[in-house]
Design brief:
Layout: E1 2-6, E2 9-13, E3 18-22, H1 25-31, E4 37-41, E5 44-47, E6 51-54, E7 58-61, E8 66-68, H2 71-90
Length: about 90
């Protein structure tokens, strides 16, 4: 569903499990060959497939967790959201 980081520790939050490991979120993003993942904050890398609600400053994930979208990432997030929606409409 999403990755978040605190310091050097990364937490991978899945539907029914949470795993923790050490690393950098940028390295995780580079290893994911998936357009569904996007940074919404320097500490949050989310999978669009699990976003159930979007507001200007936050997203709500399917497990009910609300994550903040930093000002720096808002524009890119909205662009990717609109691109994703257009792909779904085109199908």
């Amino acid at each position: 569903m999403f990755f978040d980081s605190i310091g050097k520790k990364i937490r991978m939050v899945m539907k029914n499990e949470i795993c923790e490991f050490y690393g950098k979120l940028s390295d995780v993003k580079n290893q994911l060959d998936d357009q569904d993942f996007v940074f919404i904050h320097k500490s949050h890398l989310i999978n669009f497939s699990y976003v159930i609600e979007y507001e200007y400053t936050s997203v709500k994930m399917s497990n009910g967790i609300i994550l903040s979208i930093s000002q720096q990432h808002r524009k890119i997030f909205r662009e990717k959201l609109f691109q994703r929606r257009s792909r779904e409409v085109d199908k």
